[in-house]
Amino acid sequence: MTIDIRLATQHDQPRWDGFIQAHADAGPYHLFGWRNAVEKAYRHRSYYLMAEDENNSIQGVLPLILVKPPFIAANLVSLPFCDYGGIFSDSVEIEEQLIKHAWDLAISLNAKLEIRCKHAQPSLQSLPGIGVMTHKSRMLLALPGSSDQLWKGFRSKLRSQVKRPQKEGMDFKLGSTELIDAFYTVFSCNMRELGSPVHSKKWISEVMGAFGERAHIGMVYKETLPIAGGIILECNDTITIPWASTLSQYKMASPNMLLYWGFLQYAADHQFKYFDFGRSTPGEGTYKFKEQWGASPETLHWYGIQYARQSELSFTHGRLRGMIEKLWSRLPQALADSLGSLLRRYITL
Q: What's the CATH number where 255 sits?
């Protein structure tokens, strides 16, 4: 079989998404909407590789985004701003061709190559100079056929934690783009307190627009005040939550428990089979929070090859990072939002 690998164009979106939806293990980040949101919000260049046979039938895909900060080596990543990207194909041979194409592309762009996968990828493991990071796990919950069944399966302590914010006069609301402002108010405040640059509001708007009916915003209100919020994305039989935040002054009332229960209730009652809580580090607080719902860890495999100055994939940790986070958390909210929006587009995590 003759295989031709080319860059997908906007006209290929329906065929690309159809191929992704035919693969049960694919997630929302593999859909063409992620590319559209990245290009419109952050203006990074995309290289969505598509392998076709002689009948123009798609046999494999590998989505890549080039992130090039000023004065720093570029990163060709699959995919930025999320937990995973990676290759989908109908054969190992096509996987290998796509990887070779990505390797050559990274060299031509003088960029690091990073491919984030849900699972171990043997085709990548055989490459010389490859590094892999496995310190993060995504937390996945198998859902029953209804929210009633899900609720009955929870421990009494967990049910009490969900009921607590309701007793405090809090309500959950599920919506769409009309809730962007409310979500961003909570999200940006929480990110500043964590000492982390926040995504721009334009990014949130573009994600919501690109995914359309596949995207929802959930908010917890105390009367008219938004105090917790999150975004969920649909793909195949799974709902994924990429972002969620709570105002710190209300955390003792556990509004995040009501927020997640609202999302889980929606997922179970709409016949989704899985709820992906997103990535966490085993043993840390967010990991334990997700684990209490019954979610099980699935180790993420992030592979990296660097053609620039460094020899292996690395992330910023340690004392310097702690100092930066502390300083950032003390910035005025408006300044943190404006600076964060400028910086966050270059942070691929």
A: 3.40.630.30
